[in-house]
Amino acid sequence: MHIPESLQDLADSEAVQFLKRPKTITRIFAGVFSLIVFSSLLTDGYQNKTESSKLHCVLNGNNVACSFTVGAGLLAFFSCLTFLALDAHESRIGSTRFKTAFQLLDFILAVLWIGIWFVGFCFLANQWQHSPPKGFLLGSSSAKAAITFAFFSIFTWIFQAYLALQDLRNDTPVPYKRSLDEGGVVLTTLSPPSATSPVNTPTTGPNNLSYAGSASSPYLTTPKAPRLAMMPDN
């Protein structure tokens, strides 16, 4: 099947490649789950009992449970939107320190949301377990949806924390390593003068008065022993 050129260009565009990233997909799922959690309790989470017109939370009548869930879901939803916007401009960030700080903040917030959703799921499940079976006419489906997607959010943020940790490991700059021979001392052996060296070659001639003394001098006839010289490294 032949794909038109325009569709091929669309598939290779930066927007499509950005949406195909695992981090982007995970943020979208986390945002959708958070939206379901707070919207379900915000719309049908407060109901009145049969004998009263006052609104109560469907989770055992505990308004703290509904308020906590709505607040956590709303903050998590805006957190996902904010980091999606930052991810879209991540390639334009030139500062390495700012990029590392952004990835570290992403990891810390992901771990924080794991704890929040775990506590929230346990709290909601406990309140729903102690709720009277027919205390409210409506709202049971909304409470079940909030509990279910709060549970799914735990694994979503776990995977998000894993991706943030991988980015930190891959993008951390390697510290400067000094070479082993840096600042070392070079040992150089001075070779003895050769037999053909001008120093050991006696000068012959009738006009050379120092010939006998030079020939018998131990400094010229005896080769010097090798020496080790300490030369500073440039």
From TrEMBL:
GO terms for cellular component: neuromuscular junction; synaptic vesicle membrane. InterPro entries: Marvel, Synaptogyrin. Residues 191-220 have a biased composition (Polar residues). Residues 18-169 form the MARVEL domain. It is found in: Membrane. Keywords: Membrane, Transmembrane, Transmembrane helix. It is a multi-pass membrane protein. The chain crosses the membrane at residues 24-42, 62-86, 107-126, 146-165. It holds the Pfam family MARVEL. Residues 191-234 are annotated as: Disordered. Belongs to the synaptogyrin family. This is Synaptogyrin. The lineage of its organism: Eukaryota, Metazoa, Chordata, Craniata, Vertebrata. The gene is SYNGR4.
